[in-house]
Amino acid sequence: MRPKLILSGLVTLVLAGGWVLAAEAPAGLQMGPATVAPHWTKNTSYPTSIPEGAAVASVTVALTRDDPEVLARETRELTRERVAAQPGGRNAGCVFKNPKDVAAGRIIDELGLKGARRGHAVVSPRHANFVVNEGGATAADVLALVDLVHEQVRREAGIDLELEVKVWGRKP
């Protein structure tokens, strides 16, 4: 069995033979002006687990044994849920961060933007917060589509969506 990543709130690496790898930051770890408390992976929530621009200088790792069949079943279930809710193919995951109290994908969907396209980049019909490359999309196609969605949400819903993805080399 190859290692698999289970994403369910906190990240756990399931290794062959039922070994589970978990990690936590040490108490009082200094990250610039911020201090991360013990067990930050368990006590903070997406998307603020590690402050932007911070670097983890130290990690405590624990390896524990668990039932391989239970882990395999959990992995299959989480994979099934992800495949049902998220598009496959070429995409970079969620494009926009969720504003307080509402999912970005729901806003985009309610504005009828599923299926919107620029070139070969399309807002996924399965999950509106994903932009999918249908093959041959350029960075310009993707960025034009992201800009279209951002502007339409700002104009029609009055919400200034913040990018989840990082765009390198683009002038503001």
Overview of the molecule:
This protein is α+β, with helices and mostly antiparallel strands and 172 residues long. Helices cover 28% and strands 24% of the residues. The chain folds into 2 domains: 4-85, no CATH class; 90-157, Uridine Diphospho-n-acetylenolpyruvylglucosamine Reductase, domain 1 (Alpha-Beta Complex), CATH 3.90.78.10. The protein has 4 helices and 10 strands. A 4-stranded antiparallel beta sheet has the order 1-2-3-6. Strands 7-10-9-8 form a 4-stranded antiparallel beta sheet. Mean pLDDT is 74; it is low at 1-12 and 24-48.
Topology of this protein?
Elements: E1 4-8, E2 10-14, E3 19-24, E4 29-31, E5 34-36, H1 40-43, E6 60-65, H2 68-85, E7 90-94, H3 104-110, E8 117-118, E9 121-123, E10 130-133, H4 139-157
Antiparallel strand pairs: 1-2, 2-3, 3-6, 4-5, 7-10, 8-9, 9-10
What is the structure about, briefly put?
This protein is α+β, with helices and mostly antiparallel strands and 172 residues long.
